[in-house]
Amino acid sequence: MKKLKCVAAVLCAGVLAASLCLAGCGDDETQRGPVTDEQGNVVVEVDKNISTTLVVAYKNENKELEMIKHLEALFQKEYPNVKFSNQAYTGSTSIVIDRNISAGEAPDIFMTNSFDMFSLDDKDLLLDFAPYMQREQELGTFDMGEYYETYFKLGQRDFNGAQLLVPRSVDRVVVHYNKEIIRRAEEETGQEIQKYIKNGWTWQDFETVCGLLKQYSAFRGTDSSPGNAVIDSSCNWEPVYNPIFKHFGVKYFDDNGKPAFDSEATKNALDMIKGWADKGYIGTTGDTADFMAGKGAMFMHSQSISRVAEELRIKAFPEVSEADFHNYYDAVTMPVFADTPYIGVGSAGYSAWAGTENPVLVWKFMKLMLSREGQNALADAGAQNVPIRRDMSDFTKEENHWGKGMENYNLRALTYNMGGVDEEGKPEPNWDCYTDYFIAPGYTRHAVALNDLFGQLVLSYARGTAYDQVIKSITSQVTATLRK
Amino acid sequence: MTRSLSPQERNRSARRQRHVIEALQYTCLTVLAIIFLFPFLLMVGQSFMPEIDFQRGLLFPIHFTLRGYEQLFAQPNYLNYFLNTVFIVVFNVVAMPLAASFCAYSFARLKWKGRELCFAMVLSTLMIPGVVTQIPLYLLFSSLGWTNTPLPLTIPNLFGGGAINIFLFRQFMHGIPYELEEASTIDGANVFQRYFFITLPLCKPILLFVAVGAFTSSWGDYFQPMFYYTDPEKYTLAVAIYKVVMLDGVSENSVAMAAGVFMSVLPALVFFLLQRKLIDGIMVGAVKG
Amino acid sequence: MQENVNVSTGAERAAPPQPPAQPTLTPAAKKRRAVKWLTGFLFALPVLLGIVIFNFYPAIQALVSSFMHDDKFEWFYNYETMFSFDPDTFKVFGNTVFYALVSVPFGLVLGYFLALAANFKIKGISVYRMLLYLPVIIPGVASGLVFTYMFGSLAHNGAFNHILNAMGLGEWSFFEAENSSMATLIFMGVWSAGGSMIIWLSAFKNIPSVLYEAAKLDGANALQCLTHITIPMSTPLIFYNLVTGFIAALQCTTPLVVVGGRFDHMGGGAGDSLYFISVKILNEFNYGLYEYASALAFVLFAVVGLFTLVLFKTSRWVYYGEDKE
Lengths: 484, 289, 325
What we know:
By secondary structure, chain A is α/β, with parallel strands linked by helices. Chain A is built from 16 helices and twelve strands. In chain A, 40% of the residues lie in helices and 11% in strands. The model of chain A is unreliable at 23-31 (pLDDT under 50). In chain C, strands 1-2 form a two-stranded antiparallel sheet.
């Protein structure tokens, strides 16, 4: 018995020591600098005959795989001996990629967005493209001026520094709407509604439209119920609420990084959104207007017009042909405030693992994605996103492949006032506005959690929780999250 | 209650009384059975229900459609999910009872110093909540590159097959007369032969019980696989239902219900086929403490 | 612990008789003993390795990482965050403990009445037993799907609400409101009462019928039979099932499949009224906060330990038969 106790004690001690060791020496993966030559210049050229395999992880949705395959085929024309292996994933990007990297299945290139990028950067997992971009700029082979800069900023550390994410396309929220419902509502109520819905419309127009639609029998509630919601607004989604918060002047954190959102401004912004819930324009308890089933009139989302059109047609208008469908559905810009016009944008694109063996080759891949050919290859694969290049925003031109076959829809909603040029070639203002409240140092690692919390703030208040209570609860949640 | 009726009482009124009591008992049980099966009958009914009927708020379908099942199986990876699940289930159904009985044999039949202490250690793991070990295990398996493979859900079961199963086997083996083994020892059988040819065949009821337990737990588990599967092509059925149907939200009710029916059919079938033995097995399992 | 003592005495009886110990051992006998020890140990080796690799090692590692923050040792930092900053902490522990305290006894009592019915001596009773037990074997995700639908609002065509509405009882909120969701979750336990029914049935089976016959002769009524025979004779079973039931209920993750992502927190329910520890740990894990999640898991471990300890300390009511007294 004594011997056994000894054995047990030794065993326990061993396990303890081993776990201490393991826990103590985590991965010492530090971000590597760029590849340089003897003169200290950043290398931006790769042997065309290089023979290697690049692993690409893509989020398993929409037509991402086809898009990636088109790009890869294009890349192989230039680098014939480069092979690709594609990994699908679902769920939270930051977690999946972190897991795959720690599991030794690190992809070289993977799809990310600005939120997940921050979490991954916190763990020093991302390759910085800035040196390569800078060197190519110096060599005159790359011009940042050709691109919408906002979307590159979204891919930078603290929105101002290392380029960790290369945007694949412009990702902007639009309002999708069901023309058939608008038409029927106009017939029944005898009011004109469609005339308010146009690019650059205001929140006031939006509320007028919702109010008029609410008079239509499909949305009118009984005494006890507010009736069906008019719009799937995702009001707890940052590209939707953040422009409103910004208009009212909401400050999320003060200069010391302490929560500072308990203010008159926040209350006003929240009241505006709550107003929609109270009047039954939006649902807040998991009840949706069910736009995709043909019940809701409007839908705020960044999904491409072609994809929404296809899904809505199949689900709600199976008898309508594809060619006629533009009479039943269209899209329009997000509503804005006339004095402070902001439209929420996010960034979806590709990042690379800091530990990749071929950083220059990966950059070449990214560069190809940004080129005219690359952007057209994406469009050929069925992507309907707006190209990231300024010179390609005009979808009516033959050489720009995007938006082909969709000319009957209001594709202008996607490029309206984002710092490009209008139909007559006049420069347009830039209304794009990205969410940046979490860029305080040390906060980016909690970007995903903070984003969830501010979404909760909007939603809980819209559901009718008292202001003080909501603020108190979210403030304590935010404080706790920042400590975790 | 019926016990109180002695066989001698053969007069009419007593018989009538017994019939009334029996009728009451049947009614009571039938009502209970209906209540207990109601949700699952609804599930089956609704899986055949067209969307129009559902939107009208009907509980059971008037019209009949297979659309839910068609759409369910039209999902590109559904066969993959099924095969993944079957692999895990088959592995565990074989491995868990064998591993558990093997170790239990040591605790029940072999005499060695430290046996009781080791057994107490095994039992003490019942106290450790799964979530405590979940995260380090996750890190361990992912550092071995086991994510997106069935390995984390199968390999650990080779090591003893679970403390509770070892406990059940040990209890059961204590109930088996030792004389049989003694006889075979005299015939020159070694310890492996005694375990495999003498004791194991006698453990059939508990083997079956543990095997079915392994089946139901690995067939229906979504929590564990959720940690390890990130590649949607490699999901198990339960994870696919959880992520695709419940979280992402399938708009059509019949598809969701068809998924639920598909998930439930096999366990129900296994249960129906083995029910007599299983209920006995559960009772054997329950008698302890 | 009592359990082990009890079990091991049983083992002593069943084990083969030992040769009388000798003061001096011949080398051959020594070798035989060593071989015997080795055989036994090797048979148990898989499980011993198993518990070290898959239980003890991860548990210790979780404990170590619960004392770390951002890869550095910061002793009680995470625990401080948990108890002085995180507003969810008391809610999740409160919810979980409340759920365990109510649902486990509820299930046992319900199972008892079910077992009474399932113990009728009539033809075809085994079919009824099977039907009553069937919901227990339906996989969690499948029953989650069906209960989400059953308890849905009228707008979601929830079955119960349609029935209640037809009966003129109006619309009930079930999982949709903060004050009714916990009750609904506990009520859902009705459908898994088949599990404890079987346990009661086996308890009934093990009570010698002579006891009832004797009691009847003494003129005892049904209630007296219950309180003086059935319950005392079933206490070991009740005790065992209380322990395992509490351990399971404290780790409950059912809200993940019945309310899912419909409310603020994943699996939190309306106003976080169904936010349980295990679900909270999963959510923190999904934010990549492994160290904080480990600290939470350890507090859950402590709660489980406390429950078990209290149950064992107060287990004097458990009747282990004459020979153990």
